[in-house]
Design goal:
- By secondary structure, the chain is α/β, with parallel strands linked by helices.
- It is 39% helix and 18% strand.
- It is built from 10 helices and 9 strands.
- It has helices at 19-29, 48-55, 65-74, 113-121, 136-142, 153-161, 201-213, 219-222, 229-235, 248-276, and strands at residues 15-16, 36-40, 58-62, 80-84, 102-107, 127-135, 162-170, 175-176, 183-190.
- It has a 7-stranded mixed beta sheet. It has a two-stranded antiparallel sheet with strand order 1-8.
- Helix 2 links the parallel strand 2 (36-40) and strand 3.
- The protein binds S-adenosylmethionine.
- S-adenosylmethionine (SAM) is lined by residues 11-16, 40-44, 46-47, 61-64, 67, 86-88, 107, 109, 112.
Length: 277
């Protein structure tokens, strides 16, 4: 496709232009003929064309109307299905109505990287794997271990649902225009559902958000709306620790305890109300 396109900052457009890097990314994805795949933000098609060639057919989600028109003019619908619009609102399950495992790839627009990862986490049960290019700093936070500076809400919420690994870094010079920051390729593979044992994902999210809301404060302070001293003792968690010391499994234990206790409280109040009548 012709490169006569004025890159739009508001859509986070930095187009891959280094053929060696493009090849390395495609090799890391290892597309196999017939696999169901969707690329987020195909842009000028740097990854799109080699992916189509290996798969036979590819889905893409693109927001920029000029790029959509170019993609449609350059490729027939039997090899490329273009879904027009915002990937943050896109129903990824619509691509796999038969339940076939979906592979998701993309050089993601950096300005929406966190919301798109959370949106995609909702489809984890339909997904085989996801391979993305993101700002290196975001990838470091995704894969961070407890006790490190990068470890936070993004690490816990994504590691709860995915096994993740940073594959390699990509320097700014591989793009036109060049971004200011280093990028990395990350692979995300959904964990088996049997390992995802949070009884209420929303409660897990609220506990994790509170624990990292004020990083310097101890759990006794940050989780005071959820747990008292007796609760910490029952959970065998030291309330003097900071959130960054807890692993994903600890957060799941806390969230499940909170859910169980509020169910018990409800049952007790229901029981005593009944006995009053
Ligand atoms: N894949 C191309 C490449 O590697 O050269 C382009 C990558 S560029 C970093 C990001 C792409 O995502 C652009 O094509 C941009 O128009 C598109 N994009 C930005 N925001 C989007 C959104 N909310 N939904 C879908 N596509 C979006």
């Amino acid at each position: 496709m012709s490169e006569q396109h004025q890159a739009r900052k508001r859509f986070g457009q930095n187009f891959l232009s280094d053929p060696n890097i493009i090849r390395k990314i495609i090799d890391a994805i290892r597309p196999q003929p017939g696999e169901r795949m969707v690329e987020i933000g195909p842009g000028l098609g740097a990854m799109t064309e080699p992916l189509m060639a290996r798969l036979g057919h590819l889905n893409v989600v693109e927001i920029d109307r000029d790029l959509i028109a170019r993609l449609k003019a350059a490729h027939a619908p039997d090899v490329l299905t273009v879904h027009e619009g915002d990937a943050l609102k896109f129903d990824f399950a619509s691509i796999v109505p038969d339940g076939a495992p979906l592979r998701v790839v993309g050089n993601l627009p950096y300005n929406i990287s966190t919301p798109i990862l959370f949106h995609l986490a909702d489809y984890a049960d339909k997904v085989k794997d996801m391979t993305f290019m993101l700002q290196k700093e975001v990838v470091m936070r995704m894969v961070a271990e407890p006790g490190t500076e990068e470890y936070g809400r993004l690490s816990v919420m994504l590691q709860y649902r995915f096994n993740m690994g940073r594959l390699f870094d990509v320097p700014p010079g591989a793009f036109r225009p060049a971004p200011k920051v280093m990028s990395s390729i990350v692979r995300m593979v959904p964990r088996p559902l049997a390992e995802c044992t949070a009884t209420d994902y929303g409660v897990l999210g609220r506990v994790v958000t509170a624990a990292f809301g004020q990083r310097r404060k101890t759990l006794r302070n940050t989780l005071r709306d959820f747990l008292n001293e007796d609760d910490f003792a029952a959970l065998e968690i030291d309330p003097g620790l900071r959130g960054e010391r807890l692993g994903v499994a600890d957060f799941v234990r806390i969230a499940n305890y909170v859910v169980m206790r509020s169910a018990l409280t409800e049952e007790i109040s229901h029981f005593s109300n009944e006995n009053l009548v």
